[in-house]
Amino acid sequence: KGVFVQRIMTLSHASQMEMKNIVISCESRLEDFAGEQDVGTDFSDDEEDSDNEKELVFGSNFDSSSMDELMIDTDAGGMLFPGSGMGDNNEEFLEAIKERDELKKSLADARRDLAGLKNDQVYGAEELEGTNKKLRTLASDLQERLSKSQSELSAVEENLTKTKRQLEDASAAADEMREKNDGLADELDVANSKALQLRKSEALIQTYRKKLQSVGVINQQMSELEDQSATYLRQILDLEVENKQIPTLQKRIDSLQKDKAKIEKQARESEENLKEKIADVARLKSKVGAAESAKKIYLDEIEDLKAQQEDNDLENDPMIPGLGLTPAKSLREAKEKVIRLEHENANLKKQVAEALSNPVLSSDSGTSRGNGNVTKLKEELKRKDAQIAKVSSDKEKLEAYTKKTLSKFQEKYLVALQECKAKLKEKHDKIEQLEMRSASEKTAQKREERLLSSTIYELGLAIMQNRLTKR
Questions:
Q1: Are 134 and 281 contained in the same domain?
Q2: Are residues 60 and 135 in the same domain?
Q3: Are 3 and 16 within 8 A, CB to CB?
Q4: Are residues 168 and 289 both part of a single domain?
Q5: Which residues are in coiled coils (predicted)?
Q6: Which pLDDT belongs to residue 231?
Q7: Looking at the structure, do residues 155 and 300 belong to the same domain, yes or no?
């Protein structure tokens, strides 16, 4: 009872209903057979045959109480078995059930034949015994086939349990894959947020680059302003020198006006000399730029001038007016004065040569006049030497002043330039750090994208494999 009832409980609802119909038909036929067992045979033999038939169908442990319980259970209806709805894996189980039903039908046919034979027992006991033997052999064969079908049914049940376990494992794997998918979705969100941060950092880098370009423009403007300030400073120094020359020039004009009456004859020559000097001045102004950058040439020319003055100590010529002391001269004016002195020395040489060639001047008056001119020239040379010394001292003072002003100017602007350079370095360092960070984040993003694509691909393959295995 425990074995067969447990097996019946594991069947589907349709199988239970079929089993119920089989049991009902078997009981009806057994009752018919019990009513006809009086013909030709003993009652005990019929009971033994019915018991044997029940044993063949339901086993040795089967009794009427178990049959009644089975009938009550089947009359209750509904699904009694947990294994219903298995799907395609129940086909083998249903085939085994069908085979068992066929065996039961054949057993029922055999029972019918046995009942007919028992009804025909009046025709001969021998035939009855032969038919009983045949039926017993047939019943044994059917029992063997039924046991085989039951073993196959147990194997099918084991396969069903295995498939259940596989389904449970597959469902667990599907849950794990869903969890992985959720984790990958979270990682994808993180990657998207990182991508947004990368875009923001790229925009910041572009803004910093624009700022750097603007800083470069500012540096150019600062250099231009420095050049302009240097030119303005030179112009200021030139104007200061010219302002200092105004009183000396005024004194020279007064002295020239006083001496104008005395040297009317020399006025014409002085006018010619002035014209030549104006031409020389125009020519010298064009050479001022080169003279400022050639200080060594200036010193060599001063030494040549001193040598020429020593050679011309014995020459006679009236002193050329308009060569007073000029304090605080610039380098350009010093160069200009040196060239003027050279020109005046050349004119003096010409005048001395003309005085020597003139026969009128060979008299005593000429000699006395020549001696006076020589003394005047010596005095003029002494004055020129003193003037040169003053010019050199003024030049040194001017150089010192310019150096001081330039040093102050450079200190102020160097501090500003250093600050700008420090800021530029900080900005460059920030830009490099941002570029390094963006490169590392890009590589990490590419790596994450590859991992996501590989995991998604593996997940899709796993899902397809699960679907194929289910089919």
A1: no
A2: yes
A3: no
A4: no
A5: 93-194, 222-437
A6: 73
A7: no
The CA-atom distances, in angstroms, between 95 and each of 50, 141, 413 are 29, 20, 104
Q: Under a CB-based contact definition with an 8 Å cutoff, are residues 340 and 280 in contact?
A: yes
Q: Is residue 431 in a domain? A: no
Residue with the two structure tokens 């034949």: 113
Distance CA 24, CA 104 (A): 13
pLDDT (tens digit per residue) in 229-252: 677 667 767 766 766 776 776 677
Non-local CB neighbours of 392 within 8 Å, separated by 6+ positions: 302, 334
pLDDT classification of 400: cutoffs 50, 70, 90:
confident
Which of 323, 343, 164, 353 lies closest to 252 in space, CA to CA?
323
Rounded Cα distance between 223 and 225, Å, is: 5
Shared domain for 167 and 279, answered yes or no, is no
Asked if the structure places residue 257 within a domain, the reply is: yes
Q: Residues, the chain, total?
A: 471
429 lies in some domain: no
Residue 292 has pLDDT above 60, yes or no: no
Provide CB contacts within 8 A for 100, sequence distance 6+: 146, 149, 150, 153
Q: Is 280 in the same domain as 396?
A: yes
- Per-position b or e across 195-223, b if 16+ CB within 10 A of its CB: eeebeebeeebeeeeeeeeeeeeeeeeee
Give the SS3 label for residue 467: helix
Residue with tokens 């025709």: 123
Tell whether 275 is covered by a domain: yes
Are residues 173 and 54 located together in one domain of the fold? yes
The pLDDT of residue 285: 57
- Summarize pLDDT for 412-465 with one digit per residue, the tens: 767 777 887 788 888 888 888 888 888 888 888 888 888 888 888 888 888 888
Q: Which token pair is 91?
A: 């086909």
Give yes or no: residues 171 and 247 share one domain.
no
Q: In the chain, how many domains are there?
A: 2
Which candidate, 178, 167, 177, 174, places its Cα nearest to that of 470?
Answer: 167
Q: Which of 184, 212, 227 is the last residue of a domain?
A: 184
Burial 246-259 (b: 16+ CB within 10 A, else e): eeeeeebeeeeeee
Give the domain extent around 46: 2-184
Cα(461)–Cα(459) distance, integer angstroms: 5
Angle between helices 2-9 and 64-76 (to 10 degrees): 20
Element (H, E) at 233: helix 125-260
Cβ(377)–Cβ(347) below 8 Å: no
Count the Cβ atoms, other than its own, within 10 Å of residue 191: 20
